[in-house]
């Protein structure tokens, strides 16, 4: 079974530029998550999709971050414009079940973003 | 609001020694608790999870964790450390508000030969 795929793996941009990350979840997984992991911290949920609908985006900085999951499969996370404090690893995860508190999340390898 | 505290950002053990990584949680409802491992430049991998069944949970790679409600703890242990266990470990809780998972800050485990 193929895992969660993310691209690119690394990205370096200057502040005020735009950047986009792509995620392809495990086939058949209904729920998709985007996390931000700042160096030295645990992952923080940015947005959670169930199929192509948003379940939770309470911690997404909506003035600069946007995400979509067209057709309930792969997803794109965009930052426009980027700030220095956006430097982090962006992790995508997916899980099989809908609305399960014990469902296992499977993580991709992440995209490491450096904003100069 | 739920939260997770991992005691010790770094833990160093000798190969063959006991591994103990500490995690305390806060939740207003019965929690679901998880331990994840992250190797360099990789995503997180689930080690084990507590889902209100047995309080002693066995996971992969010889790890186990015990849920202690009275102490609000979910410490991770392994009887004998191996060099391949060197990684970062995250404790996480899910419970309040449904499906959001809150992660601790992580503990980096070093294993000395």
Quaternary organisation of the protein chains: heterodimer
* Sheet with the most strands, sense and barrel status of chain A: 7 strands, mixed
Summarize the main sheet of chain B.
6 strands, mixed
What gap, in angstroms, lies between the N and C termini of chain A?
37 Å
Shape of chain B: globular
Overall radius of gyration of chain B = 13 Å
Helix content of chain A: under 10%
Q: What is the structural class of chain A?
A: mainly beta
Overall geometry of chain A comes to globular
Q: Quickly count the helices of chain B.
A: 0
Q: What is the terminal-to-terminal distance of chain B?
A: 41 Å
Mean pLDDT of chain B: 91
Order of helices and strands of chain A: EEEEEEEEEEE
The proportion of strand residues of chain A reads over 45%
Polypeptide structure, described:
The complex is a heterodimer of chains A (116) and B (113). Chain A is mostly beta strands and 116 residues long. Chain A has no helices and eleven strands. Chain A has strands at residues 5-7, 10-13, 19-24, 31-37, 44-50, 53-56, 65-68, 75-79, 88-95, 106-107, 111-115. In chain A, strand 7 (65-68) and strand 8 (75-79) form a beta hairpin. The radius of gyration of chain A is 13 Å and the shape is globular. The model of chain A has no long low-confidence stretch (mean pLDDT 92). Chain B is an all-beta fold. Chain B has strands at 3-7, 10-14, 19-26, 32-38, 44-50, 56-58, 64-68, 73-78, 87-94, 101-103, 107-112. In chain B, the strands form two sheets. In chain B, strands 2, 4, 5, 9, 10 and 11 form a six-stranded mixed β-sheet that branches. A five-stranded antiparallel β-sheet of chain B has the order 1-3-8-7-6, with no helix packed on it. In chain B, a hairpin with a 5-residue loop joins strand 4 and strand 5 (44-50). Chain B is globular. At the A-B interface, strand 5 and strand 10 of A face strand 5 and strand 9 of B.
């Amino acid at each position: 079974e193929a895992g969660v795929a993310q691209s690119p793996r690394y990205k370096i941009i200057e502040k005020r530029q735009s950047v986009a990350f792509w995620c392809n979840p495990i086939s058949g997984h209904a729920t998709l998550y985007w996390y931000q992991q700042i160096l030295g911290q645990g992952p923080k949920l940015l947005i959670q999709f169930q199929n192509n609908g948003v379940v939770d985006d309470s911690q997404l900085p909506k003035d600069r971050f946007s995400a979509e999951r067209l057709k309930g499969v792969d997803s794109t996370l965009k930052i426009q414009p980027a700030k220095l404090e956006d430097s982090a690893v962006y992790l995508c995860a997916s899980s099989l079940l809908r609305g399960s508190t014990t469902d296992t999340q499977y993580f991709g390898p992440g995209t490491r973003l450096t904003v100069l | 609001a739920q939260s997770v505290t991992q005691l010790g950002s770094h833990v160093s053990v000798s190969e063959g020694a006991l591994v103990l990584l500490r995690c305390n949680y806060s939740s207003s409802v019965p929690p679901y608790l998880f331990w994840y491992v992250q190797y360099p430049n990789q995503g997180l991998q689930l080690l084990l999870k507590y889902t209100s069944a047995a309080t002693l949970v066995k996971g992969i790679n010889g790890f186990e964790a015990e849920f202690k409600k009275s102490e609000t703890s979910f410490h991770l242990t392994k009887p004998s450390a191996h060099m391949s266990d060197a990684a970062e470990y995250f404790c996480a809780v899910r419970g309040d508000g449904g499906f959001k998972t809150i992660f601790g800050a992580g503990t980096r485990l070093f294993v000395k030969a």
